[in-house]
Amino acid sequence: MKTASARSQNPVAGDRNACAPSRRRGRTGPCDRLRADWALGVALSFVLWNTGCDSEKIEVYTAAKDKPAPATAARSASSPSARARPQLRWQLPAGWRELGPGQMSLASFQIEGEGGGRAQVTVTPLAKLGGREVEVVNMWREQLGLEPLGREEIERQFENVTVGGEPGRLFAVDGAGADRIVTAIVHRPEASWFYKLAGDAKVVTAQKAAFVEFLRTVQIQEGAPDESSGGDSEPKPVWQVPSSWRELPAGQMQLAKFAVPARGPAKAEVSISRFPNDTGGTLANVNRWRRQLGLAEVAETELAGMVSALGPSHPEGKLVDLTHEQRRLVGVIVPRSGAYWFYKLMGDAEAVAPEKEAFVRFAQSNP
Amino acid sequence: MFVLPNPILERMIQQLIRFLTSLRLTVVCLALGILLVWVGTVAQSDEGLYQAQQRYFKHWWVAGVSLFGYRVPLALPGGYLIGTVLLVNLVASHLARFKFAWKKLGIHITHVGIILLLVGQLTTDLFSRETQMRFAEGETKSYSESAQENELVFLTDASAPDRDEVVAIPESLLRRKGEIRHEKLPFTVRVQQYHVNSQLRRRGPMVDTGPPPATQGAGPGVVLTPVAETRSMDERNLPSAVLELAGAPGTSGTWLVSPLLEPQEFKVGDRSWRMALRWRRVYNPFSMQLLKTTHEVYRGTDIPKNFQSRIRLENPAKRENREVDIYMNNPLRYQGLTFFQYQMGRDEMDQSRGTSTLQVVRNPSWLTPYVGCATVAAGLLYQFLMHLAGFIKRRVA
To answer: ipTM for the complex?
Structure first.
């Protein structure tokens, strides 16, 4: 057996005994070092391997509770829904119930049919989609679980219709179940307008004539706020604004907007709007506010428990206070001087709470 | 020193050592490395940069490769395996053949430098971590989030009123489906569906007539559409999963989780829980508040001149509370982390409020490439000078 020192004279691989261990006490040959290194390498690899598998482990720890993040769903200024909302006028067909504007729609209506069937009508301006009717129809068909149709077939199904004196196109999509959608599209310079009647097939079929008649009566007053709507051209009321509030540029359809004092990162804003009608009633507005907070809509029967009077001196005014996940909204609807005033304090709950009293006083006293 | 009494074992070890110290192994590894780099680079166009890096270079084996749009049934050793074998080969050869001589000192130093580079790259891959910290002016964050990975979390009130106890389950466990149990969870999580990328939209009351993706929480109100995994560097996959919480009364039915949904609350007994699928978080023992953002561009252009975030750094354990400026080419190095200025923008809700994103990098072995390169350079220089000196000496003689 050769010793390590002998092997070191001939280090070329191929010597079968090249790595025989040194048996001399107190001496460590290169092969011994190699084996020690090998063992170390295996151990190191094991450690690294285990470290690399850390991403598979379930971790348990404590962490500070999340504070509410700033809302990210704000509409961009260029989106149709963020621009000036046109004013709509119409003649309400018999049996239709107005629900007020929704998140995207300018108006919506509920139709109760016989035997419990229901349908809904919505009026929604969207981005200009002129020339893309085929894609739109196929989108509806896809949502109803139907195969897409070819351009020629869709063109054949279109009916001509008059919407407020303007030419529009009407089409119907029958779902695989008991649902039916009838939609009229009108392309205007500022947007494509969708008038949709959707719901139980029987109700939709029965209401189609009334829907077509409704379309004839629709009048759009584009971007010209009248005296009863908020707008830059309207002289602002003389406000008695709490001194700590900071005025912000009012948004479209708003009379004014204020930032209340921030509490650390928590922020909130007050906005005031005025409309000639109650825009669908208390229920529609409360549900619109609830949606803004991410809350589910409530039924008429649940409304009484969440709406209170604005105060003894303003029994006609309605006050709503909603909170959801650190976000809070205090809303007030006051009929005043032949119009409906809408006051809204909304933001992080931490910033809303200390301002509620001042906000209510502001709504009671202004203008 | 250890001696093996078994001659068969002894012979096996000798053969193994001969294999590990052979020059052929080095050449084969280098050739495979070249092939892997080429395949991995070409595959990036089909699989995306991140996926290709993970699958080809950060794995031990690669089964099936993508070449020019075709799936080729080819098995290759991954980057980890080639790197590890090269490292073992280099160390073993060095030790087996090591004989100190001044004239070969440069070669030894060069080898040490290469070993450092290999070890440094391996440890960088294993231990480095890149996350992002996004906040708006006024916001305080004590965590950063992964740009690629997600986690399913179950949150419940901790003993302190302002803290949550978090059970964080990595997305990789959801991907396997099946059951997930943990001693801290009073229920078993059954993953019924997992989608690596998906779209969610609000359910139309009269239009969407199919069954909802889940029966509890946000599930009944949305429509879930699985979509193909994105490979683009500019997009992020939005995973979703349908879960069942078994073994706890009051949680019957199924739940849909997605980073697009807010945490969903449920009760088990008297205890409230929240559940969410979110970007994977890494918490720090300190907090950072974004005080001010500065975004300057060269006059008349959109070319950025200066991105700057003023941060309040607060570390209660060290009684530290100070303001720091982080801007381009001036990162903050703190507690083993490096905070780079990454992106800037405006708060969508309040355009007067600036937002900032910091790239948070943890790389404990960030120095090894520098040291390795310097060592290699020193070794080569020494060796060159030795030869040069010998050459000059011979010429003079």
So the answer is: 0.74
